Amino acid sequence: MTAHSLPRPFANATPAAAVPVSVAYGDGIGPEIMRASLRVLAAAGAQLAIEEVQLGEQVYLAGHSAGITPDAWDSLRRTRVFYKAPITTPQGGGYKSLNVTVRKSLGLFANVRPCRGLAPAVATRHPDMDLVIIRENEEDLYAGIEHRQTRDVYQCLKLITRPGCEKIIRYAFDYARAHGRRHVTCLTKDNIMKLTDGLFHRVFDEVKADYPEIATDHMIIDIGAARLADNPEQFDVLVMPNLYGDILSDIALELTGSVGLGASNNIGANGAMFEAIHGSAPTIAGQGIANPSGLLLAGAMMLDHVGQGDAAARVRNAWLKTLEDGVHTADIHGAASLGGPVGTEAFADAIIARMGEQPRHFRPAARSTAVVPIYTPEPPKPALKQLVGVDVFVDFTGTPDELATALNKASGNPLVELQMITNRGVKVWPQGLPETFCTDHWRCRFVPRAHACINRAMVIELLRDLHYAGIDFIKTEHLYTFDGDAGYSLGQGQ
Ligand code: NAD
Question: How far apart are CA 180 and CA 125, in angstroms?
């Protein structure tokens, strides 16, 4: 037992019926909203056998550099159901995001984030919005693979995989099917990131053919975000890569009235994690004023997941009735509120007092029967992969012409030639523009001369030549074709 002492009702859960669940109280407002949520779940008749696990800031400060204890991993792998309060992630340094680590380590590839208007109980300009964001959860820039390569330049790798795209996009369509939704929108930036986001869009187009009853469209993420902010009612299910989903779900939730209302589940083949969408809100921590709704609704999703859908429906209905009755925490307090804002515990008490009641204005929640299958991607089809060149990234201070001269002088292999140099993706040699601002980070593309081929030994030879010429190469990227299609981007300006 820790300082967070577990609510007594779970201590009395029927051992045979109680489902083992790992619970983390988190940081900031985490312990307050977790205590309140567990009280409500227990009052709804949930049967849970809780294993409390330690992770987050306190664990890090106690000397576990990853911010999570080995015991916590054991519990997560045993129960495979994780109910997690928000945790603080250091910004710009410190340990990696534990949320990301847990999601990726347990293979929780789909992050499901429903966002629904609750007017008139909660003031919103979008009373009819009712959308679900399905965010890819394991890939994209969240690999956290970053390098500083030169004095001026830092890099973050964006990784998008075909199986990753296929799993999340099929999940979005299967989710729509299971929940009677009719439209799936895909959002990417494939006009710029033609290979990575282009793959996501292409897989979307391939997969949608298997769901003919569901309408689809694709939007570039910038206009999609603008439309979402202006007219969220037009959306139903949205599927997108990790970073876009992270940002858009906060925008969508804010439109519903408060980020404090947002719940999410993180689903994979081997487990699930249920959490609020918001963070640890350190500025209001310890004041007892946080809205526990997001975490509570995540708890209802968890009850659905473990087969306790009746209890989940009771939680949702008592919560809706509480909102209708005007009992509101400070973040959603407004014209529809009765009396002043209530604190976290009083809000939970109000929900518990309404347990078993149905809302009058909102459609009552029923036991969910939706089951969303999890797709296992087929093994990849073999492709003919051919090396056709190499991009050598160089740390250099000078002009493009000076660099080209140095590279041409250094490279001793007559079968390989310097084709172009780009700086931050823009072609600067040959025939660059003098106006282009150049940093100390250059991509130098070498290709075989006409009728010649290139192999890895020639790449090594080239690097050796550059080394002895004193050229500071910092990384290489091989250029491949796959069944004849280029697997690399061209320089802008080509
Ligand atoms: P935040 O979501 O914690 O807070 C944003 C704003 O919303 C603040 O004004 C806050 O007071 C308010 N807010 C959030 N939840 C609320 C609630 N339940 N009731 C009332 N108001 C609420 O975002 P942030 O301040 O950018 O992040 C704080 C910390 O949380 C950071 O360390 C961040 O990395 C972490 N974080 C964790 C998670 C997670 O654990 N899943 C998610 C997001 C952010």
Answer: 25
